[in-house]
Amino acid sequence: MGYVVGTLKAVKQEDPEVYAAFRAEEKRQRDKLVLIASENYASPAVLAAQGSLMTNKYAEGYPRRRYYGGCQYVDAVEELAIARAKQLFGCEHVNVQPHSGSTANMAAYLAVLKPGDTILGMALSQGGHLTHGSKVNFSGKLFQAFSYGVDRETELIDYDAVQQKAEEVRPRMIVVGASAYSKVIDFPRFQEIAKSVGAYLLVDIAHISGLVATGLHPSPVSHADFVTTTTHKTLRGPRAGMVMCKEEHAKAVDKIIFPGLQGGPLMHVIAAKAVAFKEALAPGFAAYQQRILDNARALADGFTARGYHVVSGGTDTHLFLLNLNSRGVTGKEAEEALDASGIIVNKNAVPYDERPPAVASGIRIGTPIASTRGMGVSEMSQIVAWMDEVLHHPTAKRVQSRIRKEVKALCARFPVFSDS
Ligand code: DSN
C-alpha cells in the first residue's frame, strides 16, 4: 500500500509525546486485523491531502461566493469535489462541507423540518444510527422521534410494519439507513411509504456509500429527497460527511449548512474528499468494493457453517452481526478476547437484545480494512477459524497469545505502512 510514516519528522521534533502516540497507533493499525465495519484505511493521497496546508484557509461561503479573499485555489478544490461527487452518485445537488455524518443528517432535517416535527427512523437497538431519532441524540431531543425495526423471526426490515407505523405517527420525515443491518434496503418501497403519508425521505448511506457508488447496492438517489453519507467508511475518504438532495432542496441545504450549522468549511478535508472521489471513480474501485462484499460473504458463510447465528441470515453488504447468545459469551467478552488475539471488532446489540448496549449480545464484523489490505476469501476462512477458536475459549490466554502472533504474521503479508 506504500503509506509513508517517516514524513512526520516535524511532529517528532516539536512534540515527541504526540509523535510517540502516532507511532504506537501506526503499529496497532499495521499489526492488528481490524474488522470494524465503519472504519477504513484511507489512501496515502487522501491522508496527505487531509494533512495539507489547505487547513490554513478560511473560506466561509461557497465557491465564488466567499466571505474571505484569497479563495481561488480552495474554490477549485471544492468545485472538483462537487463535480466528482455528482458523477459518482448521479445526484442533482451536493454539499461537500459537512464536517461529519451527524452534521450532514442535522442539515437534511433542518433544511425542511422545524423542532417538534415528527420523524420516523430505524431504532438504534435494531441496527439504526444515533442520529436517526435516538432519545440521547439531538435528533431525538429536537424532534418527536418514532422508530421501526426488524421482524423478530427473519431479522429483516418489516416494510408492512413500517407502513403501519408511518400511518399511525404521520411523520414529516422518514429516515432510512443503518449502522448494523446487513441486507439490501428496498428504497423504492420506502419511497412509496413516505409518499403515502406525505413525508420527506432521508436516506443515510454512510456505511454503504462505496457499494452504492459502484452499483453493488441499489442507489437511493432517485427515490429520496435527501441522501447523506460519511466519506470514510466503504467510500475510503477522509473522516467527514456530505449531503445530496434534489435540486428543489438545494438552497435550503446550502443555507442550513452555512451559515446555519457551520462556519468555515475544513478545506483540507474537502481537498481529501476530492481526492477520494477521484479514486472512487477510477476503474479499480469497483473491483475493490466487490472484494469487500466477497470477503463479508465468505466470513458470514464461514460462521454459519460453524453453527453461528448470523443476524438476518447473511449479508449483502460489507458487514454483518453475530448473535452470540447461544455461545455463552457476551459481546463485550468477545470483543475483549478477540482484541487480545489481535482481531478488532466492536460489541453490538442484536435485534431484541436483552443486554444493555455496553455489554450487548453480539459483535459487528466488517471487511473494508481487510479488503483495503488486499486480503481475499482464502484469508477469510483462516480468520473465521481463529475467531471461532477464540470464542470457544474466551479466557484462554495461551490461545490468544498464539493467535495474536499468527494474526500479526498474516498482517505482515498484507502490509500497509512503510518507514522510508
Ligand atoms: N459510529 C459509526 C459506526 O460505527 O457505525 C456510525 O457513525
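^ D-serine complex. The first helix runs from residue 9 to 14. The chain has two domains: 50-281, 292-413.
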